[in-house]
Amino acid sequence: MTLKASKNRWRADKLSSLGSSIFQEVAGWKAEAAAGGLELIDLGIGSPDRGPSSEIRRVLSEAVLKEDSYSYPSSEGGLAFRSKAAAWMKYRFGVEVDPETEMLTLMGSQDGLAHLALAVCNPGDVAIVPDPGYPIYSGALAIAGVTPWPLPLKAENGFLPDLSSIPEEVLERAAFILLNFPGNPVSVRADYAFFEQLIGFARRWNLLVVHDLAYSEMGFDGYRPISILQVPGAREAAVEFHSFSKSFNMAGCRIGFLAGNADAIGALRSLKGNIDYGVFEPVQEAAIAALEQAMGADAGEGVGPLYERRRDAFIGALRGEGWDVPKPAATMFVWAPLPAAAAAGGLDSRRFARELLLETGVAVIPGDAFGAEGRGFVRIALVEEEERLAEAARRIGRFLRAKGLAE
User: Fold this and answer.
1) Residues 71 and 206 both lie in one domain
2) What is the pTM (predicted TM-score) of this model?
3) What is the pLDDT of residues 95-110, one digit of tens each?
4) Are 286 and 330 contained in the same domain?
5) What does the alpha-carbon distance between residue 21 and residue 16 come to, in Å, rounded to a whole number?
6) 198, 269, 215: which is closest to 381 by C-alpha?
7) 3-class SS at 335?
């Protein structure tokens, strides 16, 4: 009997393409910094530091006490949740979607992002993804055997993609194009005219547009992010992800939804029907309460103003310390170009992030974790209160001066 080769046994090669290695690496740096006695200020992962409203928590706590809450939920999500989500889409964006055929409940938007390519592509297809972009965009393609084509987002273009730069041979093979506005890690915003152009472009090339709108409630300076489904004809050519993690501080609840093209929705529904049994019913009830609150008289200010205040305080403090970082237009992230002197001093984004953490205890994510176009940047998450962000800025300032990087 011939023995199997032991190299890489029980670990698929495709796992090396998932893009999560840098986050594990940063976790190791954090452990090293903590072991050295540093108090950490973790501005790496975009996990909200506040919980949902007391009303949402009350609904959740009451629902989990019901004995009949513990049967299998449906994979597609309850009609009550999908109907409420459709009502919120109408309220928030003026968009009509059919909760029966044009909406699917997800265990957080990452669930859908991770599985969509498996549902709508065949191995060997191409998908166009942003560079820099959230790691699961490309990681999901590796799982599905789909080839990514990175679409550069460059500062000189205002970080908007140049659709005309995509080669025809790529467009002929591509199944979908994925974008997110406002984005992660780049918080650029797109206007209605761009979405019109994108839908027209996609219909011309028979592409599905996948729009990740996880940060729909985090616009600043009077800007309110818009839905691509507001464009006429978009429901025939696009799907859009929505998340409760950032909009309602419900990250641990794992709930979101996908809305738009019925064929793509149906494909993902079929796949998920063979994978999972859906979102815990009490979590769906809590999400319904979140949407009702957002549409009600007691909606409050929402999460946007909180992160806008944090942005203003942090950016102002950084500038005072000698690092002139552009203000993000939305989201919970700062996409910060390294100081001009960093390259001359041999500091790329990874070395900058590592040395910053080990010397100050402030954790940020190197930009190359999000693609080749992220080199020379770091992503900073505004997930601490203003006082802690001010302390982080002071530590960063000391680091910059010690390295001769203050501007």
Assistant:
1) yes
2) 0.95
3) 999 999 999 999 999 9
4) no
5) 8
6) 215
7) strand
